[in-house]
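Dear Dr. K.,

Following up on our conversation at the group meeting, I've run the structure prediction for Mitochondrial carrier from Polyporus arcularius HHB13444. I'm pasting the input sequence below exactly as I used it, so you can double-check it against your construct before we proceed with anything downstream. Let me know if the numbering doesn't match what you have in your notebook.
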Amino acid sequence: MTSVPATLTVTPLEEKVSVVEEKTQDSQYALKFAGAAISNMASSAFCNPTDIVKVRQQLRTQTPGARGNAFWSVGVDMARTEGVLSLGGGISASMLRELVYSGIRMGTYEYFKDTLHDASNGALTREGLTLKITAASIAATIGSALANPADLVKVRMQAYYPNGSPYRNMRHAFASIWQDGAHKAVAAGASPMSGGLQALYRGVEATTIRGIVLSATQICSYDQIKQSLKKRGVMQEGVPLHFVASTFAGFFCSVTSNPVDVVKVRLMNDKTQQYKGAFDCVRQVMVNEGLFGFYKGFGMCWARLGTHTILTFLIYERIRYLFGIEAM
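The predicted structure tokens came back this morning:
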């Protein structure tokens, strides 16, 4: 009986190297997501007191600049009437929001940069702002939309209630908001499922726009400033460079995102349907409060977002170093 010789298939070395590199790159993207989520959660936990004061300021509709709306007045009043622990309100929802929102918007930024660069065959250069802004916008759009329910619950839990908060915890807040939307939908002859989802996705337009504006200025300015300072030989990779770049990034994103943040917070806390949508909210703020109405809470926004940005990038770069990933 004649034996048939076995056929030995040899995989070219280049293909093996390509597969290994692809797996390594995929694992790095996963670690970047984890690092982005951890760093943003840590920063948000530290900045929660300033965040809740900012939300309280943005929900007030009194004359812009009135003394009672100053961030120190709001903070002191909260501590005196609601207790110091009130400054930690909504922190559980904030952590969930950062896990989804920031994990995606910051953790997938470089994935979209690499993908778009390869898809354009290098036409979108890594040094150009077009690639950076496009990548940041795509990542922020996905992260903002998916995290909207957690963002809404955070705002509701941080709002002021004269008779005490109606929410016992984050889980109860989710359930209450869902049930309220479902009941209204049934009364209007619609599906309770659609009503619950609409309630949790209230203000998603403003949330997404804010996410894009914030990420395009925060992440891209940090990336661009780092790149420029290193290229000119002004600073080398390290903590001092990360601190300088993140300080500028924190200021820029505070200026650009505050107006959208005001609209987002108003819409999310609008239980009486005072606003028909984002554009109607913009119109009412402009008519009733003037242009400076969009910058209510800016001092606390800068204090919070500036500190948050610095801490986030310092922690994120350190986590990347510990994970064996090159600096951003």
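Two things stood out to me. The chain has one domain: 27-58+66-165+204-322. The CA atoms of residues 203 and 267 lie 5 Å apart.

Best regards,
J.T.
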